Amino acid sequence: MSGYQRFTLLENLVERLADLPSIGRKSAQRLAFYLLSAPEAEVEALSNALLQARRGIHPCTICGNHAEGERCGICSDSRRDQSLICVVERPADILAFERLAAFRGVYHVLGGVLSPLDGIGPSEINLQTLFTRCESGVVEIVLALGTHSEGEATSAYILQRLQSKPVKVTRLARGLPAGSDLEFVDEITIRRALEGRVDLAPRG
To answer: What mean pLDDT value characterizes the chain?
Structure first.
């Protein structure tokens, strides 16, 4: 019975690890065996770090990025250009831009994209806060959503909603691979796409 119990515990650990993004079953098994052979203090430190991060990190009240306080570090930085907002799907996408150290504006995290088939409409993602931000002092919105169909639909919806506002709406240049997510695009491609962004609604 004890042998069966140990097998059940190991399988449960493997299953939990395999649920993580980009972790296949073989990778999950390797991680599980590593954790089982690691010092207990190391495993406990990892467990505590996970719990502390999960409990202590929450959405920034302004942009939706990860934050430990009311505002994230970017929204709190007085050196950032608050009139230039880059709209992304996930907090992980912000890292792709910050690695470049070339974008000096701020961000807005939608927390998803429109997907009617999955029941995700405008009210299910962080859109209204974006439109509210555009009411005061915002000069340009840069749409940096994925080039998959849901990202395209979300960009089109934002453009439609902002057409009557005195805000320039641009999107990243078409250097990004079709169907791609920013998180997995190389820095050179992102830099070129950002520098070559195009106006979606040029005003005469």
So the answer is: 87
Q: Which fold has domain 62-199?
A: Dna Topoisomerase Vi A Subunit; Chain: A, domain 2 (3.40.1360)
Give the global pTM.
Answer: 0.78
For β-strands 168-171 and 198-199, DSSP reports them as antiparallel
Asked if pLDDT for residue 119 goes beyond 60, the answer is: yes
- Report the C-alpha gap between 198 and 165 in whole angstroms: 18
Does 183 or 121 have the greater pLDDT score?
121
Pick among 1.10.10.10, 3.30.70.120, 1.10.8.420, 3.40.640.10: CATH of 2-56? 1.10.8.420
d(CA 20, CA 57): 19
Helices 25-37 & 2-18 angle (0-180, nearest 10): 120
The 8 Å CB, 24+ separation contacts for 121-128 are 122/157, 125/154, 126/64, 127/157, 127/158, 127/161
Pairing of the two strands 81-88 and 140-143:
parallel
Q: Which of 144, 134, 132 is closest to 173 using CA atoms? A: 144
